[in-house]
Structure formats: C-alpha cells, structure tokens
Design brief:
Layout (H helix, E strand, L loop, with lengths): L1 H4 L14 H4 L7 H19 L1 E2 L1 H5 L1 H10 L6 E4 L6 H9 L34 H14 L6 E6 L6 H13 L4 E6 L10 H10 L2 H16 L2 H18 L3 H5 L3 E7 L3 H14 L4 E6 L7 H5 L6 E2 L19 H15 L3 E5 L3 H4 L1 H7 L4 E3 L4 H13 L3 E7 H4 L3 H9 L6 E5 L16 H6 L5 E4 L3 H13 L5 E4 L23 E4 L4 E6 L3 H13 L4 E5 L2 E3 L3 H9 L3 E6 L6 H11 L8 E5 L11 H8 L3 H11 L17
Parallel strand pairs: 2-3, 3-4, 4-6, 5-6, 8-9, 8-10, 10-11, 11-13, 12-13, 15-16, 15-18, 18-19
Antiparallel strand pairs: 1-7, 12-17, 14-16
C-alpha cells in the first residue's frame, strides 16, 4: 500500500490499476477519485466504439466497491444481462482493449467466459444471474469451498419469472448467496437520506442477523397460537423499519435501500454482507442510469445503446442513410392495418423502441401492451387474446423469442391459435454478436405443424406480409425481417395479402435455379448476373414462405435445372432442410439433381461488421457463385462442361 500511496498524486489512479489486486491496495479515501476517472474512461471509450453506455455509468461506484471488497475472481461476480460491464472490464485487465468493444476480434459487449477469468458466466439475455449464481454456490459447497458468490441484477431483469424461480429455490435451500438489486428505474423504495443509510447499515450488521435468527428460532419453539403471533409481530417490525418484505417471503435477508453512488454507504454495507457468511441476502441499491454524464442523465433511454458520439456535446453520429429501417416499415404497416381493424393489438416484451411498437403505441395506446422482460408471458398473453377474437401481433426479437419457445409450442401451436409473431433482428446483428443473432427461428418454428412462416425479401414485401399475417385467422403465423435499413424500394401504399405458401419467379433461366428466402434476394440476383457472365443461365426465385412450402415451384425448379441452390440467413435445419426433405421424399433427387443449401455457418459467429459476416458465411453473390461452380465441378475461369444444359 505504501508504494502505491507514495506515487505522484498527478498520476491518474486508473493508470495504476492493472487488475483488482491493485485496486484493493488503494486506501478507501482514494476510491471516489478512482470512480470519477473510471466514469470518464468509460464515456471516452464508448464515444469511440458505440455500445451500451447508460447502464455502465450507473454502476461505476458499485463496480469499484465490489472489486475492492470481494476477492475476485475467486469470489464469483455475475452481472445480469451485462450491458453494464464496461467499467468492470476496465478494472479487470482489459483497459488496453476497451476501445475494441464490439469490433471484430475485439472485446465482447457482454461478459464472456473465454475472455477473462473475471467473467465467470456469460450473459446477454436477462434474468439469468441468480440461477447461475445459485448453481455456483451449490457447487462451492459440494466442493468444500468458502468463496462468495455475488449476483448483480437490474430492476428490469427482476421482472422476469426466471429471477423469482431462482430466488425461491435459493431461499428454500437457505444457500449462502448475495444478490445486488440495482434499482435504476422502478425505484421500489427510494432512499431517504441519512435515516435510510443508517437503517441499511443496521440491517446488514451481524447483530441484526443474530437478533432475527433468535426471533425465528424462538417463534418455532412457541405454541402454535403464539408462533403465529410472534411471526406477525416480526413481519410488522420489518415492514415498519425497512422495505423488502416480498424478498423476505422468498427466504432472503433484505438490506437497503442504499444510495448506489455513495461509497460511504456502499462500502460498510457490502462489507457487513460479505462478512455475514449467511444467506441468501439481497442488497437493494438505488442508482441513476447514465450517472455523471449530463446527456445520458437527461435521456437515459436514448443513451442505453449509442452510436459513436461527441463527448463534449453528446451528439451521436448520424447514420449515413435516410432509408427507413425494416423495423420502421413493420411499425408503419401494422399501424395501417390497425386503422382498418380494431381487433389488432400489439405486444412487446420491454422493447417498444427496438421493435417499433412505440410508434404503434402513440396512435393506439389502449391496444399496445408492454409486458416487461417476460417473453414467456408475452406469448401466452397473446394466445389468451387470440382465444377471444383479438388479432395479436407479438413483436419480439428472434433471439428473445427463444425464451418463450415452450409457450409457442404448447399455448399457441398445439391450440392452433392465430397469434402473429413479428420476428425482428432475424439473421446477423453485427456488433451485438452471437447472443443476439437471429439464427434459429426458421429451424425452431419450422418444425411446428400448421405454422405459416414468411421472410421478407425487401421492405415492400414486408408491407404485404404484415397484411398477410393480419388476414390469417385460422392458425399461427410469423414474419421475419433483419436489423437495419431497407433497400430503398418503393413502398406500396396499401399492403395486399399474399397467396399462402406461394413464391414468385423474378428471373427465368435454364441451368441453375437459385431459390432465396428473405433479404439475401438482392445478393442472389447479383449472383445470377455473375453466373450469366460465366455463361450460365440462372433462374431466380423468391420463396416468400418457408411454411407451407411452394412445392409446385420447387418441383418445377428441380425438374428443369441441373443445380438448385437455396439461400437463407438462418441456421442449418431451416428452409434448405425443408426443401431437401421435400425433394428426397418425392424422388426428385433420383436423377442427378445437384442441390446445395447456403445457410449461416454451424458455429456461433462473433461480432463483426455485417458485410464481413455475410462474406465469411458465403451469403454474398461471390459465395453463391462459388457454390454453383463447386456443384458443377467447374472452376470459374474456364471449365464449361455442362454449360447451359437443361434437365428434362
């Protein structure tokens, strides 16, 4: 410690911190200064890379306090969702790479086990921390360990049922586990100054736990009638002196609320909790999203996720295009349908802005429902609406819909209810990486009987597919579309329902058939041009529907071409697999037809620029051309054997 303190005070404290061991050598009096430097470094780094800003700024002091008091990485520190972990990464040996956040070969925007020992659990979806932490705590006990397990979960993530399932289990087991509830929005019980601070210290102290234990043991030994009275008195006392009775009912000791930006409050309370060696304990910490950066404090929703920005002004870099996004086209199309049909309602799971339902909600507030981070509930809630004749659209990202899959199967598909799923962020999502990629929806929905599954090839098609979904009243349906801007095609004034299960041929050829599903159609058309330059005539078709398949179109393509290539932005097991199954079952592979399926690679693809991801996946025009040439056993430079042949 002396060596650290004796250094020049002009040296930034953050420059001395290579890892939390260095942090723990600082005197407590230096921690507020370190927190200020850490906040500045976080702001500067995110201004360069873009990413999640507000949540991280809100937990700077908490991050410093946790690494200061707990022996990380031996003590496990688990961040729920992990949007807020940029300060954590800076303190845990990754400061030199912090400006590679969300870039190719750079740091992940979330915690990642392969990235650091200080990330004991990877997270990007919400409400997983307590379950994972409980598993670690039980493993510790079975192994005879003594380390602490600390879970940091936000109030939004606490709205999901999984968090309460985990708390119920932890409370029933009386497992030693510490949960930090980071309350930055709901303000379950806001702090009330000095008295709140005093009560938080008292309720986290050893004497408080001792008295509570004595009271509980005494109540168990009293006659039944007295036991009930004693329990009521004890509960009344807890309600009078502190909040959190709900958490106590789940078996947690509740401590708080405390000011999450006041290290003078955080340090003694967390130290008491650390040393209590009992559990489970919940510490309620109140923070401000975007704390310490005026633009983020003024608009925490807009600074949750940001593009690159000017630190001084807070102005974010504007997109280089004015083309409407697929999300916006969906939202406008749904609103147009809702003006015609009062039974159309919209559901989001805590993503009104991301799904475009904020636009719908401004026009139809009574027909818009934000259920919080609760995809399972969202799906079954939609099913309930459908049973009563409403027309629910559940707008959920592909990656998040996975969380409600059991409900999709049991509560929607088996009952054949006309719930319409608007699946945003289908396919690659660039900087958000594998946890947010919409890779699997075609595979996990395609195996369900009676589903109608559509994929828009451009934003004009999306308008028609929204109208199609609105018109489907006899079964569930889904339309998928990607993140980002559209192609700039002219949009129809009115959406017109498409014939169910029917694709379209955009270009007629003879040798090669290219059958695309979704927005890779533009690259497929480019591939046809490149094949024509090589002397190969190519048919290009837009499947439109994965389910039901346009079997007439597929049969025609198979019988009249030498090569058939399917193209989709989805995993193995999706559209291409369904086409191959149909071809095999109907003997269409028996006469030498060469079939290839272009899909997303069978790996979890790390973050990168979307165009680079498409290129590596072979889902660009050159990749499609290469696949055709390989199927024909040709090289693109010269072998023309079989060129132009037509199968009979």
């Amino acid at each position: 410690m002396d060596a650290v303190v004796s250094r020049s005070s002009k040296t930034p404290l953050l420059d001395r911190i290579e890892n939390p061991d260095d942090l723990r050598r600082l005197p407590e009096a230096e921690l507020p200064r370190l927190a200020a430097e850490l906040r500045t470094e976080t702001i500067d780094a995110v201004s360069v890379t873009g990413g999640h800003l507000g949540a991280g700024l809100g937990v700077v002091e908490l991050t410093v306090a946790l690494h200061y008091l707990f022996d990380t990485p031996k003590d496990r520190l688990i961040w729920d969702v992990s949007h807020q972990t940029y300060p954590h990464k800076i303190l845990t040996g990754r400061r030199d790479r912090i400006r590679t956040l969300r870039q190719a070969n750079g740091l992940s925007g979330f915690t990642k086990r392969t990235e650091s020992d200080y990330d004991p659990f990877g997270a990007a979806h919400s409400s997983t921390s307590i379950s994972a932490g409980l598993g670690m705590a039980v493993a510790r006990n079975l192994s005879g360990g003594s380390n602490n397990v600390v879970c940091v979960i936000g109030d939004g993530a606490m709205s999901a049922g999984m968090a309460y399932e985990a708390m119920n289990n932890a409370g029933a087991r009386d497992e030693r586990l510490i949960v930090i509830l980071n309350d930055n929005d709901m303000s379950i019980a806001p702090p009330t100054g000095a008295m709140s601070s005093y009560l938080a210290r008292i309720t986290s102290s050893g004497s408080y736990f001792y008295v509570r234990d004595i009271a509980k043991q005494l109540a168990k030994r009293l006659p039944k009638s007295w036991e009930r009275r004693a329990a009521r008195v004890e509960e009344y006392t807890r309600h009078l002196w502190q909040g959190g009775a709900w958490f106590e009912e789940l078996g947690f000791y509740y401590v708080g609320p405390i000011d999450g930006h006041d290290l003078g409050q955080l340090l003694p309370v967390l130290k008491n909790v650390r040393d209590a060696k009992r559990g489970p304990i919940l510490v309620h910490v109140v923070t401000q999203k975007g704390k310490g950066y005026a633009p983020a404090e003024a608009s925490p929703d807009k600074y949750h996720g940001v593009a690159k920005f000017n630190v001084v002004t807070g102005v974010q870099a504007k997109p280089q295009t004015t083309l409407p996004s697929y999300t916006r086209v969906f939202a406008d199309s749904l609103a147009a349908e809702a003006r015609k049909d009062p039974k159309i309602v919209a559901i989001t799971a805590a993503m009104p802005d991301g799904t475009g339902l904020d636009i719908f909600g401004r026009e139809f507030p009574d027909r818009t429902f934000d259920v919080g981070i609760a995809e399972q509930h969202a799906v079954t809630f939609a099913a309930g609406l459908a049973t009563e004749g409403m027309k629910p659209f559940a707008a959920i990202y592909s990656t998040f819909l996975q969380r409600g899959y059991d409900q999709v199967v049991h509560d929607v598909a088996i009952q054949n209810l006309p719930v319409r799923f608007a699946i945003d962020r289908a396919g690659f999502v660039g900087a958000d990486g594998p946890t947010h990629a919409g890779s699997f929806d075609l595979a996990y929905l395609g195996c369900l009987p009676n589903f109608v599954i559509m994929a828009a090839s451009d934003e004009a098609e999306l308008v028609h597919m929204v109208a199609t979904a609105a018109a489907i009243d006899d079964r569930p349906s889904a339309v998928r579309y990607p993140r980002g801007e559209g192609t700039g095609v002219a949009l129809p004034k009115v959406g017109v329902p498409l014939p169910i299960g029917k694709g379209r041929v955009l270009r007629q050829g003879t040798t090669v058939a290219l059958l695309s599903l979704g927005t890779r159609l533009a690259e497929t058309l480019k591939a046809a041009d490149q094949l024509a330059a090589l002397g190969f005539s190519a048919t290009v078709a837009d499947a439109r529907f994965m389910k039901p398949l346009d079997t007439d179109l597929i049969r025609q393509l198979a019988q009249n071409h030498e090569v058939l290539v399917t193209i989709e932005e989805g995993s193995v097991g999706g559209f291409g697999s369904h086409v191959l199954h149909y071809l095999a079952e109907n003997g269409l592979l028996d006469h030498g037809l060469k079939v290839r399926a272009k899909v997303m690679p069978d790996i979890f693809v790390d973050q990168d620029k979307p165009e680079t991801m498409y290129q590596h996946a072979g889902l660009t025009a050159p990749g499609i051309v290469e696949t055709v040439c390989d199927a024909l056993q040709l090289n693109k430079l010269g072998d023309a054997r079989g060129r132009g042949r037509v199968r009979g």
